[in-house]
Design goal:
This protein has 245 residues and is of the alpha/beta class. 27% of the residues lie in helices and 32% in strands. The strands form three sheets. A seven-stranded mixed sheet has the order 4-3-2-5-6-12-11, sandwiched between helices. The chain has a three-stranded antiparallel sheet with strand order 8-9-10. It has a two-stranded antiparallel sheet with strand order 1-7. Strand 8 (175-177) and strand 9 (182-190) form a beta hairpin.
Length: 245
């Protein structure tokens, strides 16, 4: 994605979200393109170091299970893994990585857990959600954790614009909200498909997570270069839900 000045261009047409069937058929192709991610694996291990042995952990958008579910399973922490994804094909692939895990085919926006978790992780699975939906998910991640539980966010971030009229995306168009630090409705492509994403800046994510109640434990950045597609500015945040007073 490139940063360009926004002039008097008409707003781009919004591409519809990629559906469950797309993700199910993508499967192994996605894993081969994005599964080898050393920085993410290292960050998952760091997140797990905050959790006691035998923790209940939820992955929100489990995908194929590579690399996050596999890293959790190989950690030696005897963690109880729970993965959710809207694509049945992705869930079946992830189940092979964690055969004793619990899985549900469900949209994260409508998911209602029956118990709370010691750890929750979300990695890139929410980028097609609208601004209001991402804010809602931040509140839900917080709510789903037990007091003292730890959340891991892995995302792609937008850059801070030089001014409020600057656009973002493949066509240099987006709506930037300086208060939230969020670029809304960015037109771009993913593995040859037109999509519309919403990206927060690093500042925007920290403000959002702290705003719903999280205590930030660590922040890290990385430039990920996938086998297919442009490089991605990754942002990793580990945050804790405070213990009850």
């Amino acid at each position: 994605m490139s940063n360009q000045a926004q002039e008097s261009k008409p707003p781009p047409e919004k591409a519809p979200p990629l559906d469950a069937n797309f993700w199910s058929t993508l499967g192994i192709k996605y894993e081969k393109a994005f599964g080898n991610d050393p920085a993410l694996i290292a960050t998952v291990k760091k997140w797990l170091s905050h959790l006691p042995s035998g923790s209940q952990v939820l992955e929100c958008g489990c995908g194929t299970g590579i690399p996050i579910a596999r890293t959790i399973a190989d950690s030696g922490g005897s963690h109880k893994y729970h993965g959710i994804d809207l694509a049945a094909g992705m869930v079946e692939l992830c189940r092979k990585q964690v055969p004793d895990g619990v899985f549900e085919v469900v949209d994260m926006l409508t998911y209602t857990p029956t118990s709370s978790f010691d750890g929750v992780v979300a990695s890139l699975s929410f980028l097609e959600l609208k601004y209001e939906e991402q804010v809602s998910m931040a509140r839900k991640w917080f709510e789903w954790l037990r007091p003292g539980g730890v959340f891991l966010l892995s995302t792609i971030t937008a850059e801070e614009p030089e001014n409020q009229t600057e656009g973002y995306g493949d066509q240099g168009q987006s709506i930037f909200d300086p208060e939230s630090g969020c670029h809304k409705d960015i037109p771009t492509t993913f593995m040859g498909n037109a999509i519309t994403v919403t990206l927060f800046t690093q500042r925007g994510w920290v403000r959002l997570l702290e705003g719903v109640g999280f205590e930030i434990l660590s922040k890290e950045t990385d430039l990920y270069v996938p086998k297919e597609g442009p490089s991605e500015p990754r942002f990793y945040v580990i945050a804790r839900k405070p213990e009850r007073n």
